Amino acid sequence: MNTKYTMSERGSKELRDKFGKLTIKEPYAKTKFLSVHVRGYIDLVRPFTLFAPFVVSMSIIAASMVYNKIPIQGDWWVTVGQASFTVAIVNAASNALNQATDFEADMISKPYRPIPKGIVKPDEAQSLAYLLYLFALLRSVTINLWFGIFIFLIMIFTVTYSLPPRIKRFMFLNQIWIAIPRGFFGILASWSVFIPEGQTPFTATSLIIGTIATLFLVGGMATKDITDAVADKRTGTRTLINTYGTKKTAFISLPFMFFPFTAIPILINIGLLDQYLWPLTFLLIPSVLISYLMIKESESKSLENVHAWSMMYIVYISFAMGFALLVIFNQYVQIPKFLF
Fold first, then answer.
1. Is the model more confident about 56 or about 76?
2. 3-state SS of 62-96?
3. Any idea which architecture 21-332 has in CATH?
4. What pTM value is reported for the model?
5. Which of 26, 123, 324, 332 has the most CB atoms around its CB within 10 Å?
6. Domain spans of the chain?
7. What mean pLDDT value characterizes the chain?
8. Contact 108/231 with Cβ under 8 angstroms?
């Protein structure tokens, strides 16, 4: 057992020698393949947070293909990958812009980030954000017009969150301002990649799934403010966390994460959702866990935030993947009616 541990440690050292630190909180160091400056640029986009929009987008795109009975072309996976990558790039741009405008708060709560460390300057981070935004917008319109429109709307929300009127400053509205582009517009953008000719992405299913995602994120996004409570207050940003405390915020946020999933059986009963989607209701259980973890305020040693924040992303990814799997399974497998 000791040998395995030694081999694991040796492997980690080799990776650090080649690529530098393995987690965001480790110190910067020059490596064989990456300079400190390049690694700082990588940290600006926060790669870990890009996994969620990429997987969510890919799941929704796949679900829409099957749901809308789109004829599968040989290169369908290329379009799926490019569209999902574009959604992730918009998120990367917003991450860089947020760090460029929040460096004073980061010096208090996240001093390990590249700007507080002096690795990257704020104007460099802002320039990187604009380049990524431009790339995403140009790439999106090559997918189709609807996708380009939704990507543009996502950009508007993420830019105004960090820059004037800087919606981040306003309590609760800041959570809504993040939830709408990442939930509603993100879902609709992904749904619009493959739609029948002459139709729009605005269907009962896409709108409801997007609304559920948005409401969940309105509550869940409070988790990101826990470690920033002191810094936000000192720099003029009001959040539920630094105004009411973590415990009250957990109770305020819980209904937004809990009730959207409890509404699924009701929506099925009145005919707005398909019956086979009822298992998504079970996501109310980990939603309660998120509130519990918020109260615990247990911070991750390797990631940037508390465990509740990580769980929030896990539930969101599970929602999108679960939705996609249920749609695909229902299309290609005959499910006995008595199960519904």
1. 56
2. HHHHHHCCCCCCCCHHHHHHHHHHHHHHHHHHHHH
3. Orthogonal Bundle (1.10)
4. 0.91
5. 324
6. 21-332
7. 91
8. yes
